């Protein structure tokens, strides 16, 4: 696994390289496992109480292009930030995101559309988003030729957004 030069500051490069080394030591994980574990690691150091903990990793043929997490609830989502950080090197890439991308009215340009416009070929999702703003994003992407899959990381990804899930469940219950 390689890092694209210029994508990260020197401190970030050292941190990401250390995480990648620890992740690549488990050879049985495969590429998807390594990159999703990196996305989960990135998500663990993000927001928390002001929004969902989301991490995104963009890779192309085993090369890490970008990592991003939600920094502010009203700022760029992790997927959008990773796409911007990749500086146009997204066509044919795979995006690993810990939470299903948004597809609704909560932002000016939904992440699902950004992913499609960027030419990303494949999206690996950690868990489904309980938010109504994410509904239909996987169908939207699949209808446009983007391969969408999940993996065995669901429990870890869901643990990062447990408060968000509870919040939406309580809202639905009180509306009934």
- Strand line-up in the sheet with most strands: 1-3-2-4-5-6
The residue-averaged pLDDT reads: 81
| DSSP E strands, number | 6
**How does the helix and strand content classify structurally?**
alpha/beta
* Overall body shape: globular
How much helical structure, as a percent, in the residues? Answer: 40-55%
- Our count of helices gives 7
Output the helix-strand order.
EHHEEHEHEHEHH
Low-confidence stretches: 24-28
* Head-to-tail CA distance between termini: 50 Å
Index terms:
176 residues; globular; alpha/beta
Structural summary, described in words:
The chain is α/β, with parallel strands linked by helices and 176 residues long. Helix content is 41%, strand content 18%. It contains 7 helices and 6 strands, in the order E-H-H-E-E-H-E-H-E-H-E-H-H. The chain has a 6-stranded mixed β-sheet with strand order 1-3-2-4-5-6, with helices on both faces. Strand 5 (122-127), helix 5 (137-143) and strand 6 form a beta-alpha-beta unit. Helix 1 crosses helix 2 and helix 4 runs parallel beside helix 5 (137-143). The radius of gyration is 15 Å and the shape is globular. Residues 24-28 have low confidence and may be disordered.
Element layout with pairings:
Elements lengths: L1 E2 L6 H15 L5 H15 L10 E6 L2 E7 L8 H8 L8 E6 L11 H7 L4 E6 L9 H7 L3 E4 L3 H7 L1 H14 L1
Parallel strand pairs: 1-3, 4-5, 5-6
Antiparallel strand pairs: 2-3, 2-4
Helix pairs in contact: 1-2, 4-5
